[in-house]
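Subject: DUF3291 domain-containing protein structure
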Amino acid sequence: MIAYISKNEFRNPMLGFKLNQQKAQLLKIAKRTKGFRGLQTKWSVNGVYFMTLWKSEEQLDAFLARTDVKEIFESRIKQIDVHTYRISAINFIPWREVIAMMSRHSNRLSAVN
């Protein structure tokens, strides 16, 4: 299993509403995608962490390669600082560990491949 974690930091709290809409859109797409195992979120004052669990790396890559998913991420990275991290996981990772890992190992998403 693969945990795909994104840290989304915003300066304007109003962007949190747009982020919540995007979360709903991505969740709807992910639920129809083979290999999706679940989503957890952690909101803070100036951002949100999303952690999704996927059965395999290939299925995660297939999800991220979809044009509708790319469009959502492209609009997101224009307005919000997004950092991502992938890690092999058996289950969801505790948030304390996620935050520590993201601060050390995450990559800033500046363009969608």
